[in-house]
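Bench notes, afternoon.
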Amino acid sequence: MLLRARLHYETTNFAHGMQSLQRLWECSSNESCTVQLDAKDELSEMNKLRRRIAEVEFLLSQEQYKVAKSEKEVHDARKAIRRYMMIVAMLFAFLALCVLKLGGSM
C-alpha cells in the first residue's frame, strides 16, 4: 500500500514536472508567458512567506505560553514562600510565648 502510494506520488510529481517543462518550452517565445511565469514565481514565494509567517506566529504563541506559565509558577512560589514565612513567624511567636510563660512560672 505504501509502495503504491509512493509510486503514485512519484509518477504524479514526474508528470507535473513534465507539464511545467512543456509550459516553459511553449512560453519561451512569448513575452506574456514569461510575465505569467514571473507572477507565478512571485505568488509561490508569497505563499512560502505566508507559511513561514504562520509558523513563526505559532512558535511565538508557544513561547508566550511558556513565559506566562513560568510567570505563574514564580508567582505561586512567592506566594508559598510568604505562607511559610508567616508559619515560621507564628511558630517563633508561640515559642516566645512559651518561654515567657515558663520563665514567669519559675
